[in-house]
TrEMBL record:
Underlying gene: arsR
Keyword DNA-binding on entry: yes
PANTHER family xref list: ARSENATE REDUCTASE (PTHR43428)
The HTH arsR-type domain, residue ranges: 138-232
Protein name from the UniProt record: ArsR family transcriptional regulator
Signal peptide (residue range): none
PROSITE patterns: HTH_ARSR_2
GO biological process, one term: response to arsenic-containing substance
Database matches in InterPro entries: ArsR-like_HTH, HTH_ArsR_DNA-bd_dom, Ptyr_pPase, Ptyr_pPase_sf, WH-like_DNA-bd_sf, WH_DNA-bd_sf
């Protein structure tokens, strides 16, 4: 199995994405090929090297790069770290999944404290990402029938579910009921259909069951979902807004428990 590839994207590739690249390499070792780039690259802020060195995280190879220079590479994951990059990179990067991690820019604040805060927040997000990516349940079946795939897309709830999961990497039933404003039985029924069709796979973590695109989903099916999301961002914009109002995963878990 080839090593999965990942790129962090920000506007300047001068702070957040550089911190993310170095930290991800530090935490994941050689299990991913990791890159970073900017849509309008600027020189790397010296405080990036300062805070990384303080934590004994290697800064070898860190330099500002233009996203267009990597236009010929296909990534398994593209992670944007600011809203401006998310809006402008969607047509510039080729990736199976595009995720949005929005962090405040630390550069306008004097000193290194804001950089440390971003590094801590990135550490938590990367920890969850690695946990999820390494512990998915391997599906025993593989989608081989194009007709069943397109039938799945023909339902509004299932289509939005797939696009949300592709954008967020994985979601639980509670998160989807909130995002789609549907009942839990209805969401669970559609998830079971997508699981049976080998389009989704799930994993259990404690009392939670999380759903993601099947690891062995054919490339053509992944590309259909990517192009659908790219050309129809408004289709799930309200659903993403409802999901974002739940906060990050720890806050979401608290809300799910309350329900």
């Amino acid at each position: 199995m080839s090593t999965p590839s990942l790129i962090f994207i920000c506007t300047g590739n001068s702070a957040r994405s550089q911190l993310a690249e170095a930290l991800f390499k530090h935490m994941a070792g050689n299990s991913f090929d990791v890159y970073s780039a900017g849509t309008a690259p600027e020189p790397v802020d010296p405080r990036v090297f300062e805070v990384l060195a303080a934590r004994h995280i290697s800064t070898n190879g860190l330099h500002s790069k233009e996203l267009a220079s990597l236009s010929d590479k296909y990534f398994d994951y593209a992670i944007t770290l600011c809203d401006k990059a998310r809006q402008s990179c969607i047509t510039q990067v080729k990736a199976a999944q595009v995720l949005a991690w929005d962090f405040a820019d630390p550069k306008p604040t004097a000193g290194v404290k804001a950089f440390d805060v971003v590094l801590n927040e990135l550490s938590e997000r990367i920890k969850y990402f690695l946990l999820f990516s390494q512990k998915y349940r391997n599906p025993t079946e593989q989608l081989t029938d194009a007709l069943s795939f397109y039938k799945a897309l023909a339902d509004d709830t299932r289509l939005k579910t797939l696009l949300l999961i592709q954008q967020q990497q994985e979601l639980c039933v509670c998160e989807l009921t909130t995002a789609l404003n549907e009942t839990q039985p209805k969401i669970s029924r559609h998830l079971a259909q997508l699981r049976k069709a080998a389009i989704l796979q799930d994993r259990r973590h404690g009392q939670w069951v999380f759903y993601r695109l099947a690891d062995n989903l054919p490339a053509w099916a992944v590309e259909v979902l990517r192009l659908t999301a790219q050309s129809n961002a408004q289709l799930i914009s309200a659903n993403l807004s409802a999901l974002n109002q739940m906060g990050d995963r720890p806050q979401r878990a608290a809300l799910c428990n309350a329900n």
